[in-house]
């Protein structure tokens, strides 16, 4: 088996999946280019088609139409066992009747790797996930985090051309999830192969990814680096799905957004749109081109800063990251200000669940 | 059927690893009170099984004269030896036939939609709920020289084949009667197997056959073991179907015992044969229990799941 230290590129072209009897495609003409060695995250709400996309790449789900290129070969119609991709499942999917070491040895056994060579690679793989002392345990004798590390070792031990991970940390508690995130990031840089990682946890996506593809209703809404997605989202959906923000929707004309009850300075093309402002770009006080009067509804102490939730007099709610020295309390009257260039004007698609905006009658 | 009752009871044994979940909270008084729940079963067992079995054992070493003569006779008398070996052979064949039919059938049940699953389950269970006599006579009718099976075979130019009174006929009829005992535990075990495990095996480079052999088959083993044991044990003491479908010349152990008792009034020989049958059954059960235990510790996929259902 050829060692491919940089991993393969994966290119989905007009990839489509229509489940029998489903009214709409689960994956709708998705185009996605994962570069060699890249850490690509598929991020999106539940039911947006992330797993289906990954399963088509892995070969578990038949492709309705479109192509999947692994480097230059179309693998869309290849059975899964001939794709040479390492898959990690949310449910670990360890073989319960085999020890950790036997699990890791499984892909090598399929490839008829000689015993001593296989034993060495199993040992190295288990060392890489810090489980060399647990090789003879059965999965049932390991904790959830340890099981997932065995599953990781099993998926990379045969030097696959890419790793596919479907919410691998979804079943773990927060603390464990964070430590395994670091472990996965380290594995990615040490192995140097391509990772395609599915999650619906935006923090996880931001922390791990080279680039993120944001899924929505079976389509990709935007692909970009975490910074690009955070700072220049293309739609209100992306803006609200990734990170907190305050959103005003209205009509922009000549650099002035008319929300119906207020006029705000913003840069962008004329027309119906949404203005997105991140909490750290807003402050309490009347400085800046835009100021709105508001009432504090809640203050969440976060150590280095306070998350201040406000209800604008003009309607709607917002969120400000307050680093000031004089603490505010719920019920205080405040001014909220921000610079015109602090906001991003985006297409006004309906927002994700976290949306907080002027036209939301009920604060999220 | 008195003779086949003991194995039927004893056949619960392999299910024990599963049902014996950690005693947990039920300590002390409560645990002791819970034990009372077993009293009716124990009483029934002692009165209708332990006492008669001991009596048989006693008769086998006392009549017609004290000693082990009845036991040595089993091994020296050609007829009894033949019957014992034939019974073991038939039980083995029926078990294999049942497994070959039931395994794919149970697998099919795990992959079809809910409605088809119900249909497949009904096909197995309806005969199960029908009287054994009725089913056996149905087979007699079907397998007659001018019965339905031969009519169909004749239509395609085969036969007529002689089936009634032959080993083949008995095998077919017994296998059909025993089928639910394999389908149900195997299906229960299979239903507990995570399909993702097969996907995982495939993605790790296993060909479909290898994925089946190295992952699915071992995980379904507890159900196979439970089903096979049940069929084997039930077949060893089977009376009705072999007597009606088979021939006296090809008689199995239970029939042979019945002849000893009813026609030859030879309680000693009958007792010895019955004890031998019991010993074979217990050895078999012990073997399977050992096998599933060593396997069971290696498989969290419910070694006892199958038992839970049967
Ligand atoms: N086997 C199937 N048959 C029919 N519809 C399916 C099947 N699998 C998924 N779907 C549908 O396809 C759509 C996309 O599902 P998918 O599992 O890809 O979502 P997801 O983004 O992975 O969501 P989650 O975050 O909940 O895992 C959903 O509407 C789902 O109901
Ligand atoms: Mg999913």
Walkthrough of the structure:
The complex is a heterodimer of chains A (364) and B (310). Chain A has helices spanning 50-58, 100-110, 115-128, 144-156, 174-191, 202-208, 226-231, 236-241, and strands spanning 10-17, 27-34, 39-43, 65-70, 73-74, 85-88, 162-166, 194-199, 211-216, 219-224, 246-253, 256-258, 263-265, 271-277, 283-284, 290-301, 306-312, 317-322, 333-338, 344-346. Chain A has 364 residues and is an alpha+beta fold. Chain A has 2 domains: 10-227, 3-Layer(aba) Sandwich (Rossmann fold); 243-346, OB fold (Dihydrolipoamide Acetyltransferase, E2P), CATH 2.40.50. Chain A has a 6-stranded mixed β-sheet with strand order 6-7-8-3-9-10, with helices on both faces. In chain A, a hairpin with a 4-residue loop joins strand 12 (256-258) and strand 13 (263-265). In chain A, helix 3 (115-128) crosses helix 4. The longest helix of chain A is centred in the middle third of the chain and has 18 residues, at 174-191. Chain B has 310 residues and is mostly helical. In chain B, 37% of the residues are buried. The longest helix of chain B is centred in the N-terminal third of the chain and has 34 residues, at 78-111. Chain B has one domain (38-309): MetI-like fold, CATH 1.10.3720. The model of chain B is unreliable at 1-24 and 297-310 (pLDDT under 50). Helix content of chain B is 76%, strand content 0%. The interface between A and B is medium-sized, with 31 and 24 residues. The complex binds adenosine-5'-triphosphate and magnesium ion. Magnesium ion is lined by residues 50-51 of chain A.
Name the descriptors.
heterodimer, A: 364 residues, alpha+beta, Rossmann fold, OB fold (Dihydrolipoamide Acetyltransferase, E2P), 2 domains, 6-stranded mixed beta sheet, 5-stranded antiparallel beta sheet, elongated, B: 310 residues, mainly alpha, MetI-like fold, 16 helices, disordered N terminus, disordered C terminus, binds adenosine-5'-triphosphate, binds magnesium ion
């Amino acid at each position: 088996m050829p060692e491919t230290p940089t991993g393969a590129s994966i290119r989905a072209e007009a990839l489509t999946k229509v489940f029998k009897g489903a009214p709409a495609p689960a994956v709708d003409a998705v185009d996605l280019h994962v570069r060699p060695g890249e850490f690509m995250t598929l991020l999106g709400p539940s039911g947006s088609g992330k797993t289906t996309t990954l399963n088509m790449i892995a070969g578990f789900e038949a492709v309705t139409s479109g192509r999947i290129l692994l480097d230059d070969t179309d693998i869309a119609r290849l059975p899964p066992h001939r794709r040479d991709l390492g898959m990690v499942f949310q449910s670990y999917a360890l073989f319960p009747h085999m020890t950790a070491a036997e699990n890791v040895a499984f892909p090598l056994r399929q490839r008829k790797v000689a015993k001593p060579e296989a034993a060495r690679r199993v040992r190295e793989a288990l060392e890489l996930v810090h489980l060399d002392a647990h090789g003879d345990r059965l999965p049932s004798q390991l904790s959830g985090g340890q099981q997932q590390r065995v599953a990781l070792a099993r998926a990379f031990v045969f030097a696959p051309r890419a790793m596919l991970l479907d919410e691998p940390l979804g079943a773990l508690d927060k603390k464990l999830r964070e430590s395994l995130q670091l472990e996965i990031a380290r594995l990615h840089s040490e192995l140097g192969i391509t990772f395609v990682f599915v999650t619906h946890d935006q923090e996880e996506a931001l922390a791990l990814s080279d680039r993120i593809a944001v899924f929505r209703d079976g389509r990709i809404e935007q692909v970009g680096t975490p910074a690009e997605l955070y700072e220049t989202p293309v739609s209100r959906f992306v803006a609200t799905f990734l990170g907190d923000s305050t959103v005003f929707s209205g009509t922009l004309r000549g650099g002035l957004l008319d929300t119906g009850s207020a006029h705000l300075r913003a840069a962008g093309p004329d027309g119906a749109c949404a203005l997105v402002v991140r909490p750290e770009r807003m402050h309490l006080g009347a400085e800046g081109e835009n100021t709105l009067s508001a009432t504090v509804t809640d203050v969440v102490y976060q150590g280095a800063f306070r998350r201040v939730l406000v209800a604008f007099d003009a309607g709607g709610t917002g969120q400000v990251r307050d680093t000031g020295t004089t603490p505010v309390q719920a019920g205080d009257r405040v001014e909220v200000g921000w610079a015109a260039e602090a906001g991003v004007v985006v297409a006004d698609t309906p927002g994700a669940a976290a949306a907080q905006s002027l036209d939301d009658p009920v604060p999220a | 059927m008195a003779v086949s009752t003991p194995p039927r009871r004893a056949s619960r044994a392999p299910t024990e690893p599963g049902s014996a979940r950690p005693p947990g909270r039920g300590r002390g008084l409560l645990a002791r009170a819970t034990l009372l729940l077993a009293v009716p079963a124990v009483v029934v067992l002692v009165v209708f099984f332990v006492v008669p079995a001991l009596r048989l054992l006693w008769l086998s070493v006392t009549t017609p004269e004290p000693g082990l003569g009845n036991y040595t006779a089993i091994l020296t008398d050609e007829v009894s030896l033949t019957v014992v070996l034939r019974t073991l052979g038939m039980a083995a064949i029926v078990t294999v036939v049942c497994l070959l039919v039931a395994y794919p059938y149970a697998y099919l049940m795990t992959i079809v939609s809910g409605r088809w699953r119900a249909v497949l389950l009904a096909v197995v269970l309806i005969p199960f709920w029908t009287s054994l006599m009725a089913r056996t006579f149905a087979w007699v009718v079907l397998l007659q020289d001018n019965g339905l099976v031969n009519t169909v075979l004749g239509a395609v130019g085969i036969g007529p084949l002689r089936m009634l009174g032959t080993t083949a006929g008995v095998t077919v009829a017994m296998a059909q009667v025993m089928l639910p005992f394999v389908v149900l535990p195997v299906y229960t075990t299979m239903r507990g197997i995570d399909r993702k495990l097969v996907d995982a095996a495939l993605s790790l480079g296993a060909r479909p056959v290898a994925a089946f052999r190295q992952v699915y088959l071992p995980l379904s083993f507890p159900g196979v073991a439970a089903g096979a044991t049940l069929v084997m044990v039930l077949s060893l003491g089977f009376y009705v179907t072999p007597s009606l479908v088979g021939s006296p010349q090809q008689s199995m152990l239970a029939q042979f015992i019945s002849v000893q008792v009813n026609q030859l009034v030879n309680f000693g020989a009958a007792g010895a044969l019955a004890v031998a049958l019991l010993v074979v059954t217990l050895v078999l059960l012990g073997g399977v229990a050992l096998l599933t235990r060593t396997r069971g510790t290696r498989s969290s996929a419910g070694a006892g799941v199958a038992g839970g259902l049967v």
